Amino acid sequence: MPPESLDSSKVHPSQDVPKGLAAYDFGFGTTFFDYENDGDQDLYWLGSTHGRGESPAGWIFPSAGRMLRGDGQGSFEDITVRAHLLDIISVDYSILDPTDPLFDPKRQRISTDFHENGKGVAHGDLDGDGFVDLIGTNSSGDKSEILDQGIVFALGPLFLWMNGGGDNHWLNLRLQGRMGIDGQGSNADAIGARVYVVTTVEGRVKPLVQVQEVRAGSSYLSMDSINLEFGLGTALKADEISIIWPSGRRQTLRDVMGDQMLVITEPGG
Question: What is the pTM of this model?
Answer without folding.
Answer: 0.88
